[in-house]
């Protein structure tokens, strides 16, 4: 069979990708769009440590998807806040009328030796990785249940699975994401 005659695998699907302004999140967003999905490109445009905000990264990925003939919208809401995470999913519903998948990729790092780690460094990382994965997934779950379909992809790390020096916060969050995925 000639594969060039097959329709794109995700034609008609709507996928939210968090942390999609750069790196692997960007690659996920572009890959989903290349397979025919409409994409919500979510990214705050923060530094690797989660500081600052810039709408540019999300919009650049949207522009890139559209330049290739795809369909995408930008979201600069935070995954680390319940109401904001719900707005990310609402962006998919408002723009495309549905949501079929969530790729929870957003993440920050605040590496520090355990005995020097502050409460803020602990909380910020857990809120983005673990709480963010729960908040965005929970916002989508109601829609998935109503339409009797939907997919979650949660990113974890070997830091969570086997540990890593100076990353107690990140490791705890990523192992929590693994447990969330199993639940």
Question: What structural class do you assign from the helix and strand content?
Answer: alpha/beta
For the largest sheet, list the strands in their spatial order.
3-2-1-4-5
Low-confidence stretches: none
Question: Radius of gyration over alpha carbons?
Answer: 17 Å
Distance between the termini: 39 Å
Shape: globular
| Contiguous helical run count | 6
Strand elements, count: 5
N-to-C SSE string, H for helix and E for strand = EHEHEHEHEHH
**What percentage of amino acids are in beta strands?**
5-15%
Query: On the 0-100 scale, what is the average pLDDT?
Result: 93
Main beta-sheet annotation:
5 strands, parallel
What is the helical fraction, as a range of percent?
A: 40-55%
Record the SSE blueprint:
Elements: E1 14-18, H1 23-34, E2 38-42, H2 56-67, E3 71-75, H3 82-96, E4 101-104, H4 119-147, E5 151-154, H5 158-162, H6 168-182
How does this model look, in words?
The protein is 48% helix and 13% strand. The chain contains six helices and five strands. The chain has helices at 23-34, 56-67, 82-96, 119-147, 158-162, 168-182, and strands at 14-18, 38-42, 71-75, 101-104, 151-154. Helix 3 packs parallel to helix 4 (119-147) and helix 4 (119-147) runs parallel beside helix 6 (168-182). The longest helix has 29 residues, at 119-147. The mean pLDDT is 93.
